[in-house]
Amino acid sequence: MPLRVLGIDPGSQVMGFGVVESSGSSLVLVEGGCVVTKAGDPFEQRLATLHEALCRLIERTQPEHAAVETIFFAKNVKSAVQLGHARGVALLAAAQAGLPVHEYAPAEVKRAVTGAGGAEKEQVAHMVKLLLGPTFAKLATTRLDATDACAVAICHANTWRTKSRVVGA
Q1: For position 38, what pLDDT does the model report?
Q2: I need a surface site. Which of 5, 37, 106, 118 has the fewest CB within 10 A?
Q3: Which pTM was predicted?
């Protein structure tokens, strides 16, 4: 049975997203890209922009689950707080849509996609491209935020498939 997952790479200036459908060992990119906010806008307006875009995306693509990357590093306290607010907006949009939300650490996502928890972003992007095959062309941008979000969705799809097998056994 296919599973459609919305993967989110949170950010207050750029939020990556990837909607991936998994069926057996097949992965298909439904839609992927980034929501980019205007740097000059007040912070609360940037959060509103992110929320509105995610709500429209969820309505348009109808995912069954949402997967969000957790915070692991910030250059300073202000950056960490702003990233936390952006994650909160993503969690809120998913919760409002009634989606179960799953959170994954960056190393867990990298390990699921590349086999190495310390993989570089470029390695993750390369594996995402290979795993999504021809459907990777649907990615609306070459930004690493978008490929990271697809990696989060792939991580959850694979994790969910494994958990389903264990429960079904």
Answers
A1: 94
A2: 118
A3: 0.93
Cβ–Cβ under 8 Å, residues 128 and 143? no
Model pLDDT for residues 31-47, shown as the tens digit of each residue = 999 999 998 999 999 99
Q: What are phi and psi of 136, to 5 degrees?
A: -55, -25
Number of domains in the chain: 1
CA distance 83 to 2: 32
d(CA 92, CA 100): 11
* CA dihedral sign of residues 56, 74, 152, 162: negative
The single-letter code of the amino acid at 152 is V
Indicate if 41 belongs to the active site. Answer: no
Is 145 one of the catalytic residues? yes
User: Confidence band (pLDDT; 50, 70, 90) for 78?
Assistant: confident
Tokens matching residue 166? 């264990």
Q: Distance between CA 52 and CA 158 in Å, rounded?
A: 28
Per the annotation, the verdict on 69 as an active-site residue is: yes
Active-site choice (41, 59, 122, 145): 145
Catalytic pick among 44, 52, 64, 69: 69
Report CA dihedral (136, 66, 121, 119) to the nearest 10 degrees: -110
**Residue range of the domain that includes 78:** 3-168
In this structure, which long-range contacts are made by residues 76-80, counting pairs with CB atoms below 8 Å and at least 24 apart in sequence?
none
- Specify whether the CB–CB gap between 52 and 62 falls below 8 A: no
